[in-house]
Amino acid sequence: MMRRTNSLLSSQSRSAVGIRALWFFERYAGLEGPGLTKRFFRFSILIALSILAHCSPFLEQPANEQISDFLPVALLFEEPGDCAFIRSPGANDFQVEVKPIPPAGCNQYGYFGADYQAYVSQERDRLVQVEAFLQQTAPTSCTATITAVQGYIASPATNPVLVSTANFAQLVGFQVVDGPRETSARINTVLTGAGFSSVDAQTEISLAGTPNLTDYESKLSLVESYALAQSDPPCQSAIQSALNLQIPGWVADQLVDPVYTAAGASSADPIFFLGRCVYGSANVGSTILCTSLQ
């Protein structure tokens, strides 16, 4: 069976890329640190290309379409890597959560926003997207989940997918890692638990990719919809095909695209949205040890 090419990794989502590139600049370009000069250099090139696209009299397409072609350059100049949020709840105990956030945003501001309340507010906005997706895709099957999500929107701090204030207070740092490989132990457990052989699971992990920033921000609410419906199996069943159409092969910690796992390893390459692992002497013997963090 021929492996299906995953369009999410190659698509630039042009309709949203202009807004997202500006958001990327505003959120990350002003951060302090040794990479500041390099980041400004990259964005200077982006701006120059955008101006060229806008002003050139030789363009065959309208300027706004050309600009949308050039704006993704901001992401192409970024080094590859994902962001690990590391907390320590006890002596020699390090708990790691990895998201496909680019290296330039691998810090407290990029991961959470200006402060914890800003993070809660941002996640509330995502819940609104979750509700809209559920209402559009399976309003009858997902009645219970929709009601729960509406409650989280009304009281954002109760959102179960949030990093809790207690965990936030245990922050010890951030580290740029290769997300799928760093958290491969957890992903391997998830894939073999879904029926893949150990060999197939390892092959899939080696092929796993991460969404670009635009796709991560626009598709995360879809993955969260499935996560928030964990106690509502009819809802999960009703939305899984719609999710697979948009993100074939998605993997988020202990959750994985059930359409992909049912179709078999050759149906798609996994797309990494979230992973977890642990390290430190307090975690010796754990089945989800990080690959390189120690």
Protein model, in words:
The chain has about 290 residues and is α+β, with helices and mostly antiparallel strands. The protein has two domains: about 20-75, no CATH class; about 80-285, no CATH class. The chain is about 55% helix and about 15% strand. The chain is built from 15 helices and six strands. The chain has helices at about 5-10, 15-30, 35-55, 65-70, 75, 110, 115-135, 145-155, 165-170, 180, 185-195, 200-205, 215-230, 235-245, 260-265; strands at about 80-90, 95-100, 170-175, 250, 255, 270-280. The chain has a six-stranded mixed beta sheet. Strand 1 (about 80-90) and strand 2 form a beta hairpin. Helix 7 runs antiparallel to helix 8 and helix 13 packs antiparallel against helix 14 (about 235-245).
* N-end to C-end Cα span: 39 Å
Per the principal axes of the C-alpha atoms, what is the gross shape?
Answer: globular
How are strands sequenced across the largest beta sheet? Answer: 3-1-2-6-4-5
Helical content band: 40-55%
- What sequence of helices (H) and strands (E) makes up the elements? HHHHHEEHHHHEHHHHHEEHE
Features:
single chain, 2 domains, 294 residues
Question: Briefly, what is this?
Answer:
Helices cover 53% and strands 13% of the residues. It is an alpha+beta fold and 294 residues long.
Note the topology:
Layout: H1 7-10, H2 14-28, H3 36-55, H4 63-70, H5 73-76, E1 82-90, E2 93-99, H6 108-112, H7 116-137, H8 143-154, H9 165-169, E3 171-177, H10 179-182, H11 184-193, H12 198-207, H13 213-228, H14 233-246, E4 250-252, E5 255-256, H15 258-263, E6 271-279
Parallel strand pairs: 4-6
Antiparallel strand pairs: 1-2, 1-3, 2-6, 4-5
Helix pairs in contact: 3-4, 7-8, 7-13, 11-12, 13-14
